[in-house]
TrEMBL record, chain A:
It comes from the Archaea. The chain crosses the membrane at residues 12-34, 46-64, 76-101. The lineage of its organism: Archaea, Methanobacteriati, Methanobacteriota, Stenosarchaea group, Halobacteria. This is AzlD family protein. Keywords: Membrane, Transmembrane, Transmembrane helix. Pfam families: AzlD. InterPro entries: Brnchd-chn_aa_trnsp_AzlD (IPR008407).
UniProtKB/TrEMBL annotation, chain B:
It is found in: Cell membrane. Its main location: membrane. Residues 1-29 are annotated as: Disordered. GO terms for cellular component: plasma membrane. This is AzlC family ABC transporter permease. Belongs to the AzlC family. The chain crosses the membrane at residues 38-60, 98-118, 156-176, 188-207, 214-231. InterPro entries: Brnchd-chn_aa_trnsp_permease. Keywords: Cell membrane, Membrane, Transmembrane, Transmembrane helix, Transport. Residues 1-15 have a biased composition (Basic and acidic residues). It is a multi-pass membrane protein. Pfam families: AzlC.
Length: 105, 253
């Protein structure tokens, strides 16, 4: 068990490090590009909506893939975040809700 | 609890009225130990959510035959949950290297947009500070950092501190997940698979800026749903983000 847990296959390590390199390039690429081109106020307005837009773009299809249990639990998270501002409370309530709703529905 | 609630509400109101709300013009960004600390402490509650996800990843990695050391190495160097989970889902014998790398690039291309969104603040930092912090960027700490910087805090080291918190919990929970392995059974029965969606719902509530947000978010939602339906992979994230930014650029007067 311990021996297995610590084993490192050279090919696997190579693939993992290649994934790390690709990911690091995507992480630094956007800022690198932007520091080399002049950004207009118009472009900045576009950039300013990116945070929320990306969150919505990730969330929309994920929730659409779910069912009534996930939608109900998402509603619980929304409500708890809005009322308390505490993400931890919202996460706990959401996970409890999704487990409960999956059992009921 | 009541007092805490009132505090947080006052906090949010202060954020909404903050000088940084109209953009970072004239605001100076520093890179200090205080910023690292603020980022780290603010992120701890979210990091528990990240850990739930990390356990799920560790369990999946164990199921496809990765050792705890290999899974931990992936979490420590890639630090991008969705792409890691997809990679593990693609894992087979022999390893489909090209497919895995292409999927990783496609899924993580959104980080270029997210990094670009940090430019108004990170443009003021040294290359080492900015790119070093970006290495630790993940969805959760990026969103918290945007919130902090937009409030006008000027804490350029927030992403680094926040990233250290996410990294620690992410790697630790990955190891936990691989070791727990078969003992956990189906993560879905504990609601662990819902953690990421829940984190994003909470972040959306916090990023909501009233009616001005409605059009770009509507465009992001619509294009993401259509793209997810038509195109395999995670391109819908990029399409949704770009479409919303394009609409905003077109609307700008």
């Amino acid at each position: 068990m311990t021996e297995g847990a610590l084993s490192l296959d050279p090919l696997v390590v190579g693939v993992i490090l290649a994934m790390a390199l690709v990911t690091a390039l995507t992480k630094v690429g956007g800022l690198w590009l932007l520091s080399r081109i002049e950004v207009s106020e118009r472009a900045e307005a576009g950039l300013s909506v990116l945070p929320g837009a990306i969150v919505i773009a990730i969330l929309g299809p994920e929730l659409a893939d779910g069912g009534p249990a996930e939608w109900g639990a998402a509603g619980v998270v929304l409500l708890v975040t809005w009322r308390t501002g505490s993400i931890l409370a919202a996460l706990c309530a959401g996970i409890a809700a999704v487990v409960l709703l999956r059992g009921l529905l | 609890m009541r007092g805490n609630e009132a505090d947080e509400r006052a906090d949010r109101e202060a954020t909404a009225d903050g000088p940084g709300d109209d953009g970072p013009d004239g605001e100076s960004v520093s890179f200090s130990r205080r910023g690292v600390r603020a980022g780290f402490l603010t992120t701890i509650p979210i990091a528990f959510g990240v850990a739930g996800y990390g356990i799920a990843f560790g369990v999946l990695a164990d199921q496809v035959g990765l050792s705890a050391a290999e899974a931990a190495l992936m979490s420590a160097t890639v630090i991008a949950g969705a792409s890691q989970i997809v990679a593990v889902e693609l894992w087979a014998e022999p390893i489909p290297v090209a497919t895995i790398l292409l999927a990783t690039a496609a899924i993580n291309l959104r980080y270029s947009l997210m990094g670009a969104a940090l430019q108004p603040w990170f443009g003021q930092l040294s290359a080492k500070q900015a790119y070093g912090s970006l290495f630790l960027m993940a969805d959760e700490n990026w969103a918290l950092t945007m919130r902090d910087l937009r409030s006008g805090s000027g804490r350029g080291a927030f992403l680094l501190g926040s990233g250290i918190a996410v990294w620690t919990f992410w790697v630790g929970s990955t190891v936990l997940g691989t070791l727990a392995g078969g003992a956990i059974g189906d993560p879905a029965s504990y609601g662990i698979d819902f953690v990421l969606a829940a984190v994003f719902v909470a972040l959306a509530v916090e990023l909501w800026e009233g009616a001005a947000t409605l059009v770009p978010w509507g465009v992001a939602l619509g294009t993401a749903l259509v793209t997810a339906h038509l195109v395999p992979g995670q391109w819908y994230i990029l399409v949704g983000g770009f479409a919303a930014a394009a609409i905003e650029v077109a609307r700008h007067d």
